Amino acid sequence: MSGARPLNPVVWLGAPMLLCVGATALFAAPIRVWGLQLPEPVFAMAPAFAWALIRPSILAPFAILLLGLFLDVFWGGPTGLWGLSLLLGYAVVLLFRNMMTGQSKPVMWAWFAGVTAVAMGAGFLFTMLDSLAMPSLLAVFWQFLATALLFPFADQLIDRFEDADVRFR
Q1: 151-161 and 105-131 helices cross at what angle (nearest 10)?
Q2: Is 163 exposed, middle or buried (0-12, 13-18, 19+ CB in 10 A)?
Q3: pTM of this prediction exceeds 0.85
Q4: Exposed, middle or buried, 20 (CB in 10 Å: 0-12/13-18/19+)?
Q5: 103-123 pLDDT per residue, tens
Q6: Poorest-confidence range of 2-11, 20-29, 126-135?
Q7: Which of 7, 39, 71, 156 lies in disulfide reach of 82, CB 3.0 to 4.6 Å?
Q8: Distance from C-alpha of 101 to C-alpha of 49, rounded to nearest angstrom
Q9: Per-domain residue ranges of the chain
């Protein structure tokens, strides 16, 4: 039995962050297919979910905050909206981490959708409080649905690095 591989922060934090930034920029491109624009999922939700399950560390919340601040600047939202929403989702995963560990993929997808709903709900409320107007529920639902479909990316990140934590064995 070999020992756990140490996690290199550049590999398990930096690479997913860059992929999220690139995917966000790509999906924000003004490309239309049959008159419909590409969805704008919150790609940062996948690493926020996975990092809390892989191994909670002091660096992951800062990386999530940076991704959230990038989303705020990129989408022109209020500063801190996505950072706080993603950190809330990260905290929920940390809270229920022991219940999630070792579950089947469909159950993990349900957990991911639930955590995404919490983060999106928080973003909805924060936006409502900031603008004193209600955002479009349909737009929030479509963004939630597009984000919930990103679970395979979170699952792939978990599979890649789960052996770095001996608690997964």
Answers
A1: 120
A2: middle
A3: yes
A4: buried
A5: 999 999 999 999 999 999 999
A6: 2-11
A7: 71
A8: 12
A9: 9-168
